[in-house]
Amino acid sequence: MTGVQHSYPTQAVVLAGGQGSRLRPYTDDRPKPMVEIPGTGTPIIGHQLNWLAEEGVTDVVISCGHLAEVLQEWLDHAQLPLRVTTVVETEPLGRGGGLKYAAGSLPRPDEPWYATNGDIWTRFPLREMAAFHHERDAEATLALARPRLPWGIVETDAFGHVLDFIEAPPSPYLINAGVYVFSAAFTGLLPEHGDHERMTFPRLARERRLAGYPLPHGAYWRAIDTAKDLTEAAKELSAQGR
C-alpha cells in the first residue's frame, strides 16, 4: 500500500510482568513469557521478538515484573534480532500505568508504536494492521481475534430438533487479541495508575478514535494461560509445520 509507509511503527512495548499463576508449575522459576511451547525450542518472548523484527521493528521495551531477573538474564545471552531495553515497575501501576511507564523508554516518543501482551503466540502482518490504523486516523487500534470455544456445541432447528454436533467452533464474538498500534499522542492519554481498557479506551471509543482490526482469516493466534494451552499450541504449530 502506497502513501502510508511513514505510519509503520519501528518500536514496540512488550508487557511481560504477569504472575502466570494458572501456568504453574511452569512459572514457579520463570516469568510467563519465558515458558517454552513444547517442541519449538523457543520461549514465547523469543517468538515475539523474532516476529516483531520480521515486521520492521528495530527497538523493543520489555516491561518486566515477576522473576524479572530470569528474563533479563536470558536477554543478555540470547542472539536478538533487534535492540531491547527492559524496565521494571518499582510499584504496581496497573496495566495502563505500566504501559505508560514502559512507553517512556521508547527511543522515538514522537512516532507511533506497537504493544503486545507477553503471553500470546501469534503471527499476522503487523504492517497491514498499521495501515488499517493510519487509514482510520485512530489514536489506538487493537487486534481482534475470534478464538475457538473450548466446548462442542449442539445445533438445533426452530422446533428443537438436533441437527448437528460441532466440536470447538469459532466464537461468535470478537475478543481483544492483545496486540495494539498506538499513535505517538496515545502515550499522553494513558493513566499514571490504573487500567487503560477501563479509563482510556472507553473515551476514545466514544470519540470514534479507537479502531478494531480483525485478524486475517487463517492467522494463528493463541493466548497461553494454562498448561492445556501449551499442549494445544504445540499440536497446532506441529500441524502447521512450525
UniProtKB/TrEMBL annotation:
This is Nucleotidyltransferase family protein. It comes from the Bacteria. It comes from Streptomyces siderophoricus. Signal peptide: none annotated. SUPFAM superfamilies: Nucleotide-diphospho-sugar transferases (SSF53448). Gene3D superfamilies: Spore Coat Polysaccharide Biosynthesis Protein SpsA, Chain A (3.90.550.10). Residues 12-238 form the Nucleotidyl transferase domain.
